[in-house]
Specification:
Layout: H1 2-20, E1 27-33, H2 40-53, E2 58-64, H3 73-90, E3 94-98, H4 100-111, E4 118-124, E5 137-142, H5 146-153, E6 161-167, H6 170-183, E7 186-192, H7 195-205, E8 211-214, H8 225-235, E9 239-242, E10 253-256, H9 259-274, E11 285-286, E12 291-295, H10 296-302, H11 308-313, E13 316-318
Helix pairs in contact: 2-9, 3-4
Length: 319
């Protein structure tokens, strides 16, 4: 009897001790998207972040700055202050920040060398304009494979002058600047705000350059995917290329970067930080993936025969 009572007492005391131990709370990660839901690049990063973090003991909160639809300086500063208020109320353990505006308007002015760790991704070409790395900031820069694209286009045409046509946004102007450095040919840049401007410049550039890189359409007012595809198929007379998957239906060749690579790396890095690694011990790196996309509809329009060597390495073929 005495032994039974003792055992019961021991079990009860162990239960009480267990109840007294603190329950390990889920870690908190805030993901700041510079753009908006429905924008393919943002959606790709978001899905990758979610797929990495969902199996872990992590509470994920997402906020979107919507700066492609609202490119004004006053709006960017205002939405950055709102994001800062969300950070202070949510109290995340790590913040993931995608694309340039989150770095420029949130990390740099409010969290330089702060205690709160940040992991950036989607920052175009270099993080130097923001002074990264900080003691609390690391991440992945976004390197468009422009050299690979031009090298591929040169298999089909002689190139001495390259055009670049994109939305008139901070990110695209930065992209154009560094693409020009990579291409190392005569380079003409055109940035537009409306779909009608885009169509006009697309048609004009057919007579002004040997090859045209079609940049990001995000932020172009009135853009219509179906009309853009029809217009490109009717009006393309020179070799065209792109650096983004969703532009491939209107370009001859694509050498594209991966949003999934950016988001997955950012989330995996966030997990390392949650497990005790300091951001300052994780070097900033660039993406390594590039996908080759061949648009056979535009190839037919240009009367270009695609060699088997290209077909074998293509990630996607648009028929």
């Amino acid at each position: 009897m005495y032994k039974s009572v003792s055992r019961l007492a021991l079990v009860a005391s162990m239960i009480l001790i267990g109840l007294a131990l603190p329950v390990q709370a889920a870690k908190r990660v805030l993901y700041i998207d510079s753009y908006h839901q429905g924008y393919p690049w943002s959606d790709g990063i978001t899905e990758a972040v979610q797929s990495v973090l969902e199996p872990e003991n992590v509470t994920l909160k997402i906020i979107r700055l919507d700066t492609k639809n609202n490119p004004g300086e006053a709006y960017k500063k205002d939405v950055a202050l709102k994001a800062k208020a969300t950070i202070e109320s949510f109290r995340p353990d790590v913040v993931i920040a995608s694309d340039d505006n989150a770095s420029k308007y949130i990390i740099v002015p409010y969290y330089k060398n702060a205690r709160l760790p940040f992991v950036f991704c989607g920052v175009n070409y270099t993080a130097e304009p923001y002074g990264f790395p900080f003691s609390n900031v690391t991440g992945m820069v976004e390197l468009p494979p422009a050299i690979k694209l031009i090298y591929s286009l040169k298999h089909f045409t002689r190139i001495t002058k390259v055009g670049y046509l994109a939305a008139d946004t901070l990110t695209e102007r930065k992209d154009g600047e560094f693409t020009k450095r990579d291409v190392r040919e005569d380079f003409i840049e055109r940035y537009v705000s409306t779909f009608s401007q885009w169509k006009r410049e697309f048609a004009k550039l057919q007579d002004e350059v040997d090859a045209l890189i079609i940049g990001n359409n995000g932020g172009i007012k009135g853009w219509d995917d179906d009309e853009a595809r029809r217009f490109a198929e009717q009006n393309t007379r020179i070799a065209t290329g792109c650096l983004l998957d969703w532009i491939a239906p209107i370009a001859f060749l694509g050498a594209t970067r991966s949003a999934t690579e950016q988001g997955a790396y950012a989330a995996q890095t966030a997990l390392k930080i949650l497990n005790g690694t300091r951001p300052s011990d994780i070097p900033i790196r660039g993406n390594v993936q590039a996908n080759i996309i061949i648009n056979m509809r535009i190839a037919k329009k240009l009367n270009k025969k695609i060699p088997n060597s290209f077909l074998k390495i293509a990630t996607k073929i648009i028929e």
